Amino acid sequence: PSAWSGVNERTFLAVKPDGCQRRLVGEIIRRFERKGFRLVAMKLMQASETLLKDHYIALRDRPFYNRLKDLYMGSGPVVAMVWQGLDVVKTARLMLGETNPVDSLPGTIRGDFGVDVSRNVIHGSDSRESAQREISLWFRPDEIVCWQDHAERWIY
Ligand code: RTP
């Protein structure tokens, strides 16, 4: 098992430009904190063309690729984060909702805050493998903070 399994599992989340513009950053962080996950890295940044190309490499042949990369994800700041905890990859995807907000239940982030598939507020890694790939794309190792989380003895 990798060093990032069990309670040390990690995922990459990013509040997209619409989420930042709509002042949803605090609300989104709050949901993951209350759930019991541990924030281990975070930065507000303008994603570069190179970074977005790498991040969305699997979608490069999709009809919405240029719109997604240039007109959406590259259009303003994003808040990139790494969260840690038991089954955080799968659980975060559940908390996000479906890609298209119309399929997302109320109570999920996209179900509560989005209506349009191309403005769906947040990104979350879809597997442990993508999480590892995306974390290393968006963060240098020294940007990830190892800290003693005293709440975790009540969470696990
Ligand atoms: P994400 O990677 O952002 O968490 O999204 P996802 O896995 O739920 O969805 P994916 O199919 O990987 O699509 C990535 C992002 O592209 C935008 N999108 N636009 N028809 C469209 O205009 C369309 N379809 C997808 C969304 O922002 C989606 O999250």
Automatic annotation (TrEMBL):
ATP binds at residues 16, 64, 93, 99, 110, 120. Residues 8-146 form the Nucleoside diphosphate kinase-like domain. The keyword Kinase applies. Its cofactor is Mg(2+). The active site is at 123 (pros-phosphohistidine intermediate). Its EC number is 2.7.4.6. Transmembrane segments: none annotated. This is nucleoside-diphosphate kinase. The keyword Iron does not apply. Pfam families: NDK. It comes from Ranitomeya imitator (mimic poison frog). Belongs to the NDK family. Keywords: Kinase, Signal, Transferase.
